[in-house]
Amino acid sequence: MNKLLNIIFLMLLTGTAIAESFVIEDIRVEGLQRISEGTVFNFLPVKAGDEMTDSGAKSIIRALYKSKYFNDVGVEREDNVLVIKVSERPAISRIEFTGNKDLTTEDLLKSLRQVGFAEGQVYEQAMLERVELELERQYFSRGKYGVNIESEVTPLSQNRVAIKVSMEEGLVATIGGVNIVGNVRFEESELLAQLESSEGNLLSIISRDNQYSRQKLSADLETLRSFYLDRGYVDFTVESTQVSITDDKKKIFITINISEGDVYQVNEVRLAGDLIIDEQELFKYITIKQNATFSRKQVTKSSEYLTDRLGNDGYAFANVNAVPDIDRDNRVVTLTFYVDPGRRAYVRRINIVGNSKSRDEVLRRELRQQEASWISTGNVELSKARIERLGYFEDVNVETIPVPGTADQVDLDLSVTEVSSGSLSAGAGFSGSDGLILNANVVQSNFLGSGKSVSFGFNNSDVNTVYNFGYTDPYATVDGISQGFSTYFRQTDSDEANIASFDTDVWGGSVNFGIPIAANNRISLALGYENTQLDITEGFTVSRYSDFIAKEGDSYDTYSVTLGWSTNTRNNPVLPTRGRLQSLTASTSLPFGSLQYYKLRYKDQWFKPVTEDLTLALSGNLGYGDSYGDTDEFPFFQNFYAGGQKSVRGFKSNTLGIKENSEALGGNLLVAGGAELLFPLPFVKKQIKSFRLSAFTDFGNVYDQDEDFDLSLLRYSAGLSAIWVSPFGPVSVSIAQPFNEQDDDETEVFQFAVGSTF
Q1: 148-156 and 160-168 as β-strands: parallel, antiparallel, unpaired?
Q2: DSSP conformation class of 392
């Protein structure tokens, strides 16, 4: 208002200053300090040679005030010279914030810059007042209603000012209570359990679920709406939301008024639009059925499944919209899925970025989506999964980019984030009998970026002295046949490994081949040789072992053939959240060797997402061995063992099964498995991809060849575990409590393994 009055007053003065019109011979600007005359001239609606009138003077004043550079503008005449007298507004020299913790200074300056309040800009008192209100709004949105903001303006030389904004943020207002009014079909406790906003509990100091924010409340209202719509309440509405704050601005009370409405059934499900795929085929992908209770979640899933199905045939930009026709009289919904496939598209080019170490060919040979072919969303996802399973990359992302100027071409941008492919893994443990146990294994799984694997292992502990070397080329042929070899030498003191007292010296090697038989399936073949030297501790009393050596000798040459089958659909080789890994191997020694025996092994890991953050994991491990031909008894040094971190946690490694003189003998039959609920680190908003916790239960045991399988002999345990894929390699820790340990069982509640990466 004051600004308007000033303009009117100046215009009145102008009318007395310029009584008669005249032709402008020159223009002079007086009162400038920082602003150049050229800047002023750019805003003037007149120039030299124009006729100056009373209305022209008014136009000059309006234009210069509109520029916001000036507090005062005057127009006068000296002969035929137009004189413009101005008083500049000060410029903002610097902006300083104090007391801000929740909002960083950088974020504050950025947000204020967007509204024209920044260093170098013209200072306006009214703008500063609006800035203070905006800052309050930002703090209010974060639940800090007790915030106090004060501004101080300090004049500086050259018509400049320094602005200091002091803030007392205060504490976030906590939720004193949340009430839901209008619910009939569901208990208030069940509805409140769906919301993120709550009164909190003892863990609220960490989770902060009792702190109020508008964004969180808005999300909760949408969650509540989804809860009802997924259960058929089509007419559900949030009638109103009241948020009240106590006088001390420390407590927030929320009341949500809802109207549930009635439950609606699905009367009919239809397909419409351009049905380029057989209608019966498309109906297979619609999960919501006729006569079922309406569910928005199922409607959304059905649309997504239909879109993916069209994408598998090259329609990358297909659009499926579900349109409900609501009959409120009969409380039924007719659903029509309108299909718009769009233009069929083929892949022009696949671009790979982020692979500074890995060669392009290492990634391209895993692709099942090819260039110059119709795009298939299924093949794109399979390609992504195969690259993830390599274990060379932390993140793998695929983006579909339309080619400009075309209607039927797309590019695929494949971006990866590499991890270290070289690792030095180590295990460590301590017990009263074993002391400190250390081992090391060097693996270069992506040697020189070629995808080939080179490994060298060394272990020197009270139990083992091991040397091994291995090499594998996963693509020895263009069609994906792998080949490799391994050699090893191993000295074992079984007594130190919690096994009956005997020593072995073993050296050998094998040649290995792998053949892909499907996208996720392989068969393998290994030909091996092994020399074993046994040494029984003097005074050893296990008659079975003594009898075996007396009959078969203490030195053996074994030639073996191993056949295997495996399938892998896991989305990550280290920390999977979905998919399955199965393997079945059958190994037999050849008749012309010293011993004749065979071993069968089956392993299964299954991962299923339960929620966005929870994954159910099931595992099974079966092993069986026996002798044949001239060998009467299964070699005891080939026995299976159970117990420990990789078997039944909570029991000491290799100690389950029958014992003699308190020493575990192992067995020719292994039965083990478990279930785990995997979850991220709780109370952390930004989850750490390399860290995961689990609650688990394990079971298992080994059975001697003279012992029948008996379920009652299985051992059980439960506990918590954590795994962290650190820059130094995987670190795993478990705390487990055995359920049904027997008197001769050896338990170990805390177990861990550590590693490092280079």
Answers
A1: antiparallel
A2: S
The CATH class that applies to domain 422-757 reads: mainly beta
The tokens for 466 are 């091991």
| Sign of the four-CA dihedral 97, 101, 102, 106 | positive
Domain 265-340 has CATH 3.40.50.2000: no
Residue 558, CA atoms < 13 Å, CB-side half-sphere:
27
Q: List the one residue out of 482, 392, 484 whose CA is nearest residue 445.
A: 392
Question: Could you tell me how many residues make up the chain?
Answer: 758
Question: How does 690-716 read in b/e, with b if 16+ C-beta sit within 10 Å?
Answer: bbbbbebbbbbbbbbbeeeeeeebbbb
| Residue 222 in this model has a pLDDT that exceeds 80 | yes
Q: Which pTM value belongs to this model?
A: 0.57
pLDDT single digits (tens) 21-36: 888 888 888 877 777 7
Euclidean distance between the first and the last CA atom of the chain, given in angstroms as a whole number: 70
CA distance 74 to 83: 8
Under CATH, what is the fold of the domain 174-259?
Ubiquitin-like (UB roll) (3.10.20)
User: pLDDT, tens digit, for every residue of 231-258?
Assistant: 999 999 999 999 888 877 778 899 999 9
Pairwise CA distance, residues 254 & 241, whole Å:
7
The CATH label, of 3.20.20.150, 3.10.20.310, 1.10.443.10, 3.40.50.300, for the domain at 2-88 is 3.10.20.310
The amino acid occupying position 468 is N
Residue 368: count of CB within 10 angstroms of its CB: 15
The residue type of 728 is F
Distances from the Cα of 519 to the Cα of 311, 363, 383, 395, 483, angstroms: 19, 15, 10, 21, 18
Instruction: List Cα–Cα distances, 581 to 396, 480, 573, 617, 696, in angstroms.
Output: 20, 19, 10, 11, 19
Across all residues in the chain, what is the average pLDDT?
Answer: 82
Strand segments, DSSP code E, in 260-297 are 265-273
Q: By three-state DSSP, how is residue 177 classified?
A: strand
pLDDT of 382 over the 70 cut:
yes
- R_g of the chain computed on alpha carbons: 38
Of 674, 708, 445, 467, the C-alpha closest to 574 is 445
Largest separation between any pair of C-alpha atoms in the chain: 134
Q: Tens digit of pLDDT for each residue in 721-752?
A: 988 876 655 678 899 999 888 888 888 888 87
The CATH 3.10.20.310 portion of the chain extends over: 2-88, 91-168, 174-259, 265-340, 346-418
* Distance, CA of 651 to CA of 750 (rounded, Å): 10
Which CATH superfamily hosts domain 91-168? membrane protein fhac (3.10.20.310)
Residue of 679, 706, 698 lying closest to 740 (CA atoms): 698
pLDDT in tens, 253-293: 999 999 999 999 999 999 999 888 888 999 999 999 999 99
Which two three-digit tokens encode residue 106? 């950088």
Q: Coil, helix or strand for 184?
A: coil
Secondary structure (DSSP) of 80-148: TEEEEEEEEPPEEEEEEEES-SSS-HHHHHHHHHTTT-STTSBP-HHHHHHHHHHHHHHHHHTT-TT-E
Write the CATH number of the domain with boundaries 346-418.
Answer: 3.10.20.310
